[in-house]
Design brief:
There is one protein chain. This protein is an alpha/beta fold and about 240 residues long. It is built from eight helices and six strands; from the N terminus they run H-E-H-E-E-H-H-E-H-E-H-E-H-H. It has one domain: Rossmann fold. It has a six-stranded mixed beta sheet, sandwiched between helices. Strand 2 and strand 3 form a beta hairpin. Helix 2 runs parallel beside helix 7. The radius of gyration is 16 Å and the shape is globular. The N and C termini lie far apart (about 40 Å).
């Protein structure tokens, strides 16, 4: 995104985070199989995203570390930035390799290309199942109706979108919430004061993609604190 924000973002409230976890609860039961969970990690790499990009470089390593004991995680990084620039890395089960890809990328001014992300996710999921799509961004500058159609197709294919909004742009929030609902995923907002919360929620999505609810409950017991409280909402019986 090229324009600046009009006001400082607000931290996600406890109720918003509980809502995010509760929404994940309504998705498929998760991936439990003899192969790695597959997670597509998509990020807005336009000019306003540089700080969050650096933070994500640290988070991705923790996602791998949390899942290695229950079967492993395979991740593909997709990003857009600059003038119609969109790219995706090979799938990898190596945190070192993914970090190498991420640190080679620079954020450039440009418009959002969420549609490219969703089309790419659809193409990849038709080759082999994707168990979760994580998207981190702060704006939407595209026709939302076109995005909603693509999100609905992802929902049909069983690819839930977990959208993390940096900031408080109301237009982006409304669209991100709708995309999450149509794909049977979840939405949450964060800012620089909730970096730990973002890390824990993204690790929770990775754990769920690899091992389902049983693995997530174990993660909750080991981590305790905020994760334990949030995961209780996720795993409780309806």
């Amino acid at each position: 995104m090229t324009r600046s924000r009009d006001k400082l973002p607000q931290t996600s409230s406890r109720a918003q985070v509980d809502s995010f976890i509760d929404a994940i609860k309504t998705t498929a039961v998760g991936h439990v199989a003899d192969q790695n969970g597959r997670l597509l990690f998509a990020m807005d790499a336009t000019a306003s995203r540089e700080t969050v990009w650096d933070r994500a470089c640290h988070i991705q390593g923790q996602m791998f570390n949390e899942t290695v004991s229950i079967g492993g995680l395979s991740v593909q990084l997709a990003h857009y930035g600059g003038f119609m620039e969109f790219a995706a890395t090979p799938w990898t089960s190596s945190a070192h390799d993914l970090l190498h890809y991420m640190t080679a990328i620079r954020c450039h001014a440009g418009q959002t290309q969420i549609g490219q992300v969703l089309k790419h996710a659809l193409a990849e999921s038709r080759r082999a199942p994707i168990h979760a799509l994580v998207f981190v961004g702060d704006a939407i500058e595209e026709d939302p109706d076109a995005l909603y159609k693509l999100a609905g197709e992802l929902g049909i294919l069983g690819v839930p979108m977990f959208l993390f909004q940096d900031g408080s742009d109301p237009v982006a929030e409304a669209a991100f919430r709708r995309l999450a609902a149509l794909s049977h995923g979840a939405y949450c907002r964060f800012d620089s004061s909730s970096a730990e919360q973002l890390r824990d929620l993204m690790c929770a999505v990775a754990i769920f993609a690899v091992g389902g609810r049983v693995a997530l409950e174990d993660f909750s017991r080991r981590r305790g604190g905020t994760v334990s409280r949030l995961t209780h909402t996720f795993t409780r019986k309806p």
